[in-house]
User: Fold this.
Amino acid sequence: MSSERTHDVAVVGLGAMGSAAAFELSRRGIDVIGFDRFSPPHAFGSSHGDSRIIREAYFEHPVYVPMVQRAFDLWRELERLSETMLLEQTGGLMIGVPGSALVEGARHSAEVHGLQYSMLSADDICARFPVLNPDSDMVGVWEPRAGILSPEACVTVQLEQARMRGAILKFDEPVSHWLADGSHIGVVTGLGRYRARQMIVSAGAWVASLLPGIHLPFRVERQVLHWFAPIGNAHLFTPENCPIHLWQFDGDRFFYGFPDKGRGVKVAFHHGGESTAVDDVRREVAMSEVDDVRTAVRRFVPATDGRILASVVCLYTNTPDEHFWIDRHPGHSNILVASPCSGHGFKFAPVIGEILGDLVEKKRPRFDLGLFRWR
Ligand SMILES: Cc1cc2nc3c(=O)[nH]c(=O)nc-3n(C[C@H](O)[C@H](O)[C@H](O)COP(=O)(O)OP(=O)(O)OC[C@H]3O[C@@H](n4cnc5c(N)ncnc54)[C@H](O)[C@@H]3O)c2cc1C
Assistant:
């Protein structure tokens, strides 16, 4: 069904970033229409799988720290508004050999921003968290604020809160293309045509299909999440006893894990997945992939070397430098692009929503976005 009305902003893609943007814009009194090709939250993009890590001593770059600090506040605010628990604080450990990018990056961010943290030796880690089994030459950066977000609940709540404030949200209505028409954008779906003054493209792994005619160096990477049954000592995997843990090992391999939130112990590799076309993703998981992650489980979290309970495929949208991409379209200043978050964006969703709100309102965002510009 087409609409004669001209909306202030059309949001294309209502996953983590789009739902955050729809909420933020609608609470500023901006007239929003949003579209998704599925019914979010769903399991075809990048925002499913029960849990996402939020951490403050950001090894990727200190510039993310003020943003994640704001995100902590915004997630808590969303919890209050929705009366829903979204974030569980567990503390976090970044583990690797001294000098590794993970350990040194986390320590550097903590130092630059004066964060609370402590350095733990391998013995300290084993004594404090008996489920973790670092190599003897590894160390850990412990940060107390880290924790777990529930991605499906976060997306649901952001969409509900947006709707309550007047946003029109259309599910199962993919945008096929758009037309720039002077100062307006015509948004075309299989069901109709819509008009908006500005558009946000937050289509995650599909983002390139909505930005034809320009070179985008993004790579969609298939990632697999696995849930294992703990063997014995299940209480050691409760959130009180098992913080989120992220490991760098054998050079530049990354592995991470969570406490058991009731569905088993979730573990995964960070990166190292195959490149994929977004509409042709290999959704089945081979036993060799389970065996591969089990090798890391046996080495670093041996008490969860039980039955494999589930394996689920999810998608990263990577930029070449693995920093985010949040900017205006180079040819159309009324189009904003905000999605390629290189496998570490979820925790920032509400602050990215706030940044998009500022850009829509032509206000200067309070964060340094230099790393995220079109490049
Ligand atoms: C396995 C895995 C683990 C991760 N772990 C973490 C973590 O621990 N911490 C962290 O911070 N981040 C993590 N991330 C990254 C984070 O989850 C992503 O950065 C974030 O979810 C991306 O959100 P998005 O809104 O860009 O994409 P999505 O949430 O996938 O949303 C994109 C939406 O666009 C819709 N869409 C696509 N095309 C169209 C169209 N043509 N018309 C309308 N709608 C369209 C899709 O249906 C989808 O709903 C992880 C990602 C994965 C895959």
